[in-house]
TrEMBL record:
Renumbered residue ranges of the record's region Disordered: 198-220
Source organism: Longispora fulva
Name of this protein: DUF2867 domain-containing protein
Superkingdom of this protein's organism: Bacteria
Pfam families: DUF2867
Amino acid sequence: MRLPTTEHTSRPWRIHEVAPDFQVEDVWALPTPGGPDDLARLVRQFATGHGAGKGRPISAPVPRALFAIRWKLGALLGWDRPGTGIGTRVPTLRERLPADLRDGTRGPDLTAVPFTSVYQTHDEWVAEMANRTVHTVMHIGWVPDGAVGYRGQMAVLMKPNGLFGALYMAAIKPFRYVGVYPALLRMIGRGWRTDAGPAGGPGGADAGPTGVPGRAGHHS
């Protein structure tokens, strides 16, 4: 379910101090009911691409086709060349982090899509990606659900690259709302329901702070 922007901006997230120059594009309630400490489980699901189908970010036919078209255009027009990404066209947001976030858990990078982790706390996880058109931040928060539990909340923050980037993002917005986000939310919910983990907590007894088995998070 899409939420008002204020559902993100009114909460005391650390991302506000890290990326004040980014625009909040979308805020979504995620179908991931859980307890107060379950963000790590959701992070693990995102990082491993569970539920995406053969390592793809989206498995449904229509959004998968849209992604395929986007990557083909990117390859043809050079939108995704190495020199257009994080650390080249734009610096990583990790360079803006205050000391406590910089020295804390960074969190895992994604495997299905080119997002790299910026930081992870008990109730926040941030990852970023950039290309020739935009610098995008994915913010996953863990919030009370208004009843007796908690759920995930996803905000997408964007900083378009000039006029071309702004026009491009405006042009694809209808496709994101109709073809991408509904399938993405269904995929997240499906993965959440099937990735409950063994008794004693998601990810098993050897899971690290990121929720990834055998991994204690990585730092930089």
